[in-house]
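Troubleshooting log. The previous structure file for this entry was overwritten by mistake, so regenerating from the original sequence record. Sequence copied from the archived sheet and checked twice against the printout by T.R.
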Amino acid sequence: MHKLKFDEREVDAPEPIERILFVDSIPVADLFIDPSIKECTLAWPIAKGTTLQDILRVYFSGFLPSHNRHQDIKVECLIDDTYYHKSLKIEYLISLENPIDFIKKSGKLNHKSAGSLELLQISSGESVLELIFDSSSELPERIAILFSKVNADALIELFSQFHEVSSLRSDYEIASQAFKGKINEKYLLEPLPLIKRV
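Regenerated output below.
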């Protein structure tokens, strides 16, 4: 298992870097790197029919395996253009049969209508998971992950398992191609620019 972190010697770019990642000339993800704070954001479209529970299960079991299931996380959401937040245990959030209903009810305790969930952010301390929802179906349609270090294999697994492009979902090796290649004259995507395996 490989872990990634920013290479201190290479994080000297004066400005943030934005790139689109491709596999076989198909754009598959947006990458944003801010060298000044040593963080990276990766965003991609989610396969139709993917549920919040599907993503949470993989995110917490594979992407953040070192976390204690009793740890508090911060859950933030945007419902009908109103911002809400709540601290929860990872274990509790995963156990919910319908996290969306719970989040909406928690945010709208004093309101008549539960409204439409537009955005959900889950902050665990080491990373932030952000999901944008289709208001008509309340299924996530786009995912973004902000991190400064990450398990590369788990990131590619999460990326490939829920990606909108079917060829990425069916083959881990194809999905991993998005994280290889040249970003500019100085940095290579191996698997992410400005980040190295440790």
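The helical segments are 52-63, 90-95, 99-107, 152-161, 166-170, 172-176. Archived copy saved in two places this time.
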